[in-house]
Amino acid sequence: MNKYTSGDIIFSLFSILGLLFYIIPIVFIIWFAISTTKQLKRQTKLLEEIKESIKQ
What we know:
Elements: H1 6-55
């Protein structure tokens, strides 16, 4: 029968860990881009409201 040795298990864990080092930064960059875009939209809306109140 196939029995996994501790070396096989450790190798598998390091493979998964290696994938996480690629996936986590990508997820962080996407989150940062989305949150920055939302903040800039809020800021733009606020500035437009201030501009309109100054015009009147």
